Amino acid sequence: MVNWELNSCCNNGQVTFLVTIGVFTVVILVLWRTVLLLPFKLITVFLHEASHAIACKLTCGHVEGIKVHADEGGVTQTRGGIYWVILPAGYLGSSFWGMALILASTNLLTARIAAGCFLLALVVVLFYAKNWTLRGLSIGVMNSLFSVYDIYDDLISRRVNSSDAEKFAEICPCPCNGVGWGFIWGMISFIFLGASVYLGLLILA
C-alpha cells in the first residue's frame, strides 16, 4: 500500500535522492551562465521548443520547423493550431519533461551517490557515468529550473518583448500582463518540481 503521507521518510535511497537534487540545483544555478552547461542547456532549449511543436500537433496545427541556436535561443515555426495552448507549452513543457526525467532517475540512484559530494559532479557524471541514472536526474532538474530561470531572464532582468509570456499576454491580457503570466507559469513549474520530488520519494519508499 502506498504511503502517501511519507510517514516513514526518509530511508537511504530517499536521502540520496533529496541530497542529489539539492546538489544539482546549486551546481546548475552557480554554473548557469558558464560554457560548462551549454550542451545541456541546448538539450533543454530543444525540449522547450519540442513542447511547442507537440502542443501545435495536438491542436491540429502544422509544425514547419524547429531551430535551436548556439546562443541558447530557439524558435518553433507553426501554422494553425490553438495559439494560446502552443505558447505556454514551452515553459510548462520544460517542467513536465524535467519531472518525467527526475522520476525516471529514481532507479539505481545510489550507484553514483559519491558524485553528489563534488561541486563539479554534474559535468563529470554527465560525461563519464556508466548509466543514465544521474544523467536523467541532472537534466531533469535542469529542465525543471529552466522555465523558472528563463521566465525571470526574459521578463524581469531583460524584459524581452518577444517572449512567450509577452506574446501570450497580447492574446489573453486578462487577468495580467506578460510578467504576471510568467509568474503564474513559474509557480506551475515549481509545482511540477515539487510533485516530482514527492513522487520520487514515494517510489523510493
From TrEMBL:
The chain crosses the membrane at residues 12-32, 82-103, 109-129, 183-204. Signal peptide: none annotated. Keywords: Lipoprotein, Membrane, Transmembrane, Transmembrane helix. It comes from the Eukaryota. PANTHER family: OS02G0221600 PROTEIN, PEPTIDASE M50B-LIKE PROTEIN. This is Lipoprotein signal peptidase. The lineage of its organism: Eukaryota, Viridiplantae, Streptophyta, Embryophyta, Tracheophyta.
